[in-house]
Write a structure and sequence with these properties.
12 helices; single chain; globular
Length: about 325
C-alpha cells in the first residue's frame, strides 16, 4: 500500500518524462518574454492610437509601420552577425534596452513625435529586430526536439496572457486621464517593464558558439538549391505582411467605430483569451507532423474573417474579424 502511494506521489510530482520537461533557462526565457510582452502590448497597441489621435491619418500610421518592417530585415541581418560573432544574448539584451530607450524618447518627445515619426520608426524597427532575432535564436537553444512543441505552446499562452493584461490596463489608465497624459503614463510603465526584462535576462548565461562564420551571403544560393526553404521564406513574407497590417489597422478600426481607448483594451482581453484557450488546446493535442494542416486551417479562418470586412466597417464586422483572427492565429 505504501509503495503504491509513493509511486502515485512520484507520478504526480514528475508527470512528464525527463526529456519533455523544460530547463531552467527555458523557464527564465518565458518569464523574460512575458515581461517584455506585457510592456510591449501596453505600449505598442496604443502607440498607433497615439499617432492616430495626433494626426487622424491612416497614411502616417501605415507609413510608420512600413518603415518599421523595411528596417526589420536589416536589423535581423545585423543581429544575426552579432549572434555569430558574440552570442545571442548580446542581440537579445541590446534589443530590450533599445526598445526601452525608444519609449523613453516617445515620453520625452510627446506631441513632437509626429514631426520625427520617420526617425522613430527607424529606431523602433532596428530595436525590435535585435530583440526578435535574439529571442528566436534563444527559443531553439533552450528547447529540444522532444519538448519544443510544449515550450512553444507555453510561450503562446504566456505571450497571450501578457497581451491580454497589457491593453486592458493601458486602456483603463488612458480613460482615467484627460487629453494625452494617459498615453505618457502607459509608455512610462512599458519603459520600466523593459528595464525589468533586461535585468532578468542577466540570469541566462552567454554561450559563445564555435561556428563564427556568417553564411548570410549564401542565402541566394541556398534558395536556388532548396526550393522548400525558398517557399517557406515566401510564406513568411506573406505572414509578415499580414502581421504588419494587424499591428495597427484593427485597433484604429475599432477606435473609429467605438472612440474609446478602454473599450479597445477590453476587447483585446477577449481576443487574447480566445488565443490562450487555443494555445492550451495546441499544447495538449498538436503534432509537429501536421504543421501544414494547421497552416491551411488557419489560412481558411483568416480568409473567412477578412471577407466580413469587405462589406461595411462596423462594430460587428471588426469584432467578428478579430475573434476569428484570435482563434486561428496560434495555429
Amino acid at each position: 500500500m505504501n509503495v503504491g502511494i509513493r509511486t502515485w506521489l512520484q507520478l504526480k510530482r514528475n508527470p512528464l518524462p525527463q526529456d519533455k520537461q523544460l530547463s531552467r533557462e527555458a523557464i527564465i526565457s518565458l518569464i523574460i518574454h512575458s515581461t517584455f510582452q506585457f510592456g510591449a502590448s501596453m505600449s505598442g497597441v496604443f502607440l498607433n492610437l497615439y499617432l492616430w489621435r495626433l494626426t487622424q491619418s491612416l497614411a502616417v500610421n501605415g507609413t510608420y509601420s512600413m518603415i518599421v518592417f523595411i528596417l526589420t530585415p536589416i536589423g535581423f541581418a545585423i543581429g544575426g552577425w552579432m549572434i555569430k560573432k558574440k552570442d545571442r544574448m548580446v542581440s537579445y539584451r541590446l534589443g530590450i534596452i533599445l526598445i526601452a530607450l525608444f519609449y523613453l524618447s516617445v515620453i520625452l518627445a510627446q506631441e513632437r513625435l509626429v514631426e520625427y515619426y520617420v526617425l522613430f520608426a527607424i529606431f523602433n524597427g532596428l530595436a525590435a529586430a535585435f530583440y526578435w532575432v535574439g529571442y528566436l535564436t534563444l527559443m531553439y537553444d533552450v528547447s529540444t526536439e522532444q519538448n519544443r512543441i510544449r515550450y512553444l505552446a507555453f510561450n503562446m499562452i504566456f505571450f497571450t496572457a501578457a497581451t491580454l493584461a497589457g491593453p486592458a490596463l493601458a486602456g483603463f489608465i488612458i480613460r482615467l486621464q484627460e487629453g494625452l497624459s494617459g498615453y505618457t503614463i502607459v509608455f512610462s510603465i512599458a519603459f520600466f517593464m523593459f528595464l525589468l526584462a533586461t535585468l532578468i535576462s542577466l540570469k541566462i548565461k552567454a554561450s559563445s558558439s564555435h561556428h563564427k562564420v556568417y553564411y548570410l551571403k549564401y542565402t541566394g544560393l541556398i534558395m536556388k538549391k532548396d526550393r522548400a526553404w525558398m517557399k517557406s521564406l515566401l510564406g513568411f513574407l506573406g505572414m509578415g505582411l499580414l502581421q504588419g497590417t494587424m499591428l495597427f489597422l484593427p485597433n484604429i478600426l475599432l477606435f473609429k467605430v467605438v472612440p474609446r481607448e478602454d473599450v479597445v483594451g477590453y476587447l483585446g482581453v477577449l481576443y487574447s483569451s480566445l488565443s490562450i484557450v487555443m494555445g492550451v488546446f495546441i499544447s495538449k493535442y498538436a503534432q509537429a507532423s501536421k504543421a501544414r494542416i494547421y497552416l491551411a486551417i488557419s489560412t481558411i479562418g483568416y480568409l473567412i474573417g477578412a471577407t466580413l470586412l469587405l462589406g461595411s466597417i462596423n462594430l460587428w464586422s471588426v469584432v467578428s474579424f478579430m475573434i476569428l483572427y484570435s482563434i486561428f492565429s496560434p495555429l
